[in-house]
Amino acid sequence: MLGLPTMPADSPVLMAAIDALSAAQLAVNNRNHPLIHRSRSLYGTALSQMMRAIQDPVTALKDETLLSTYMLTLYEVFVGVTQGHGFFYHVQGLLHLLKQRGPASFESRLSMQIFHAIRYNSLSIGYHMRKASMLDSPEWLAVTVKAAKVDPYVALNDVCIHIPRLLERTDKVARPGCLQEEIDSLIEDSQQVASRAFEWLSTFERNGPRYDMVDIASMDGFLDICADRVFDPVFYFHYFGAGICYLIYNMSMLIMQGNTFRLLRQYRQLDMKQLYMWDRQLSSYADAICRSVPYNCRPVTGYTAKFGSLTPLMVARKYYEMKGAHTEAGWCGKVYMGARVPELYQAPMTLEPFEDVKKTVKDNPRYI
């Protein structure tokens, strides 16, 4: 966070969140069990400070409160043991804070950085839960209009934030009594969002792809995570941000286009050539995700980058499992388990950490 040095050093909630997250990152980096326990104690302190902060009508609206809450979502990514519940509820808390502040409150550079981070978390939750985000509304999209003109990451998320609502609408049209007009409208809207995404990629790659193909062995430490060369060569991105954009793009397109493909197969007629083209398209997204992950698993990128690449990886794994591509799906599973530092977690790790959360959220209007 570039603006962190300008934050007040006397903010109890911010100091507590920094302590907890720093301890968690050091514990993961050094495989330090005593520090894991210490970090959880610090996390408890940070939660107490956060509750005090959000109950104060003035403090709740401050940037440091928003940033502190976001940091606690990262804590859950590093050493969370709640199978996704902690992360989900922190994101819900962040969205409620956004709602309380309103779109007009995001003007400073720091507040915008926090907003972009929160929006991606909301997007990720929306993909898992197949539930629309409040951030796809016109008033919230207006927050990023200026930034999207110069930042491809922001422009991409402006497109992707619409996808969870398409997934939610898809689940609704599957219910009895749905009108054909609703189905046609959903397919048309899905195709429009896809067109915007294709346009984004065309602009992003107007000077060519922002990566080179390299031998997977050149990715420092990756073969220690998974020695199988199922995806080789892999992508070496020209800069870190490019890799993040490609991961989000390919994950989002695999989710959305996979959803559209199922709609077309159910409600329209596709000939053999169309089926083949759809298969090639979806396979290309999954393949690109897998070839992107090793870059983010290098020690130099840090654990936040590594853990952040695992959500797209699990989307690819699910696709390969549905396709019956056992070798590719197995590779995804091995990388996921190898990257998660399993010896640090008390509870057994799962490849589907949000399954229980889905049951909580399904058809519940409380969650935004």
UniProtKB/TrEMBL annotation:
Protein name (record): Uncharacterized protein
Segments passing through the bilayer: 236-256
Lineage: Eukaryota, Fungi, Dikarya, Ascomycota, Pezizomycotina
Keyword terms, alphabetized: Membrane, Transmembrane, Transmembrane helix
Keyword Transmembrane helix in annotation: yes
Pfam families named in the record: Fungal_trans_2
